[in-house]
């Protein structure tokens, strides 16, 4: 279903400023002559042309990173920390420009782009601080006669593959720990949103990251890229954020070269609201967990389970919040919901809504795609979603809230865990015992308790089951780019 409507256009000054930022980007890469177009999802217009690397050119990038990485691994951790801190400062001082870039290539409203910069830059600051923390340890051999020492060494050349939904944060959350650990990097951003990564890496060079240490490989040939690059013996690590299907392909490729692998994959997050929740807190939390980034987040609340006693009031309040959202170009003032990433996403969302209503879900607001050159979808709320609806099993990845109701805690937990995914979960209750009991029973890597935005650079982010392997952020995120070396020091007794 589509509706004809006029959506707010970009504010002219912001549009002109963003055009200036785009015009000043250095996109050309020597030796790479083919290019592909990058589009603004709010207008469908081409905003840039970036180099389209083939597999040979990607391997040249591997060679350059490998060469630069030799001296980087030998630098002191204080040196790396100082450079990362300088990079953080440059990201913050260029936040206006980065925000405009994020909004132009990805579509999210400017205020959300700024929030992403705060979040994304925080990984750089965190790893500047973390780089110098002692990482080894010393133990006594249980049988005596030896001291057992461990230290951490950089794992080596790291291939980083990122999605389009957080163009800055997905890149910094991988690049910063890799550099802190002493690794060279080849990063392949999503073809929809390569510009923010290119600009952020240029800032890293300005901050003192050596030339060639971080290679940005933009390409429309993702399978050829990964097949060639992950088989290269100089590569020792792959870190991927994206869909579970692609993650499985990459894990198979990684197996042949026995690469250390980190996988941040898809989610199907349950959000549980109990009768004893604070209604306002629960509505705020659910709104944030569902609608942040237009619902295009791997930890977005995909299935909202609400207990019978609070359900009517909760649904009414959340419907009002969604219906009040202004949809339009992310550069227009007051817009709370920008476009989804492309027209395929619009078609997918329309299909999910149609399937759910066909199976008996009640459509309380939204449900349509405004007819527009950009790719928009209305903020939508469906109540009484049956468990067999496609959107109860699929990652919605858009501004569609799907409510299911429940009577008993155990039933809600069983339904929440009835998925192959296990990235995030959410619990809303004012009862502390219930909060921990339910959080402990949710089969997810992270749980927001009375909290709709649980991500934090200082916390280990990652999934269980088919949502992934490894963690990003915190000290655990640094270990993903390190390997442990162990020395056995023999000790003779002396008298
Ligand atoms: P995607 O898997 O289609 O693409 C992600 C990246 O992988 C892109 O750069 C893409 O070009 C690349 N890619 C695709 N096929 C490839 C191949 N054969 N070899 C190498 N690279 C390949 O995902 P997307 O649509 O960009 O992002 C949405 C997905 O990402 C959702 O499933 C979402 O849940 C997930 N995600 C997960 C997290 C997390 O931390 N767990 C964070 C953000 C997004």
TrEMBL record:
Pfam families in UniProt: Aldedh
A single MF term (Gene Ontology): succinate-semialdehyde dehydrogenase (NADP+) activity
Enzyme Commission code: 1.2.1.79
TM region positions: none
Aldehyde dehydrogenase domain: residues covered: 33-485
Biological processes annotated in GO: gamma-aminobutyric acid catabolic process
Active site as annotated: 264
Keyword list, A-Z: Oxidoreductase
Assigned protein family: Belongs to the aldehyde dehydrogenase family.
PANTHER family to which the protein is assigned, alphabetical: SUCCINATE-SEMIALDEHYDE DEHYDROGENASE, MITOCHONDRIAL (PTHR43353)
The protein, known as: Succinate-semialdehyde dehydrogenase [NADP(+)] GabD
Species classification: Bacteria, Bacillati, Actinomycetota, Actinomycetes, Kitasatosporales
Gene that this polypeptide is encoded by: gabD_1
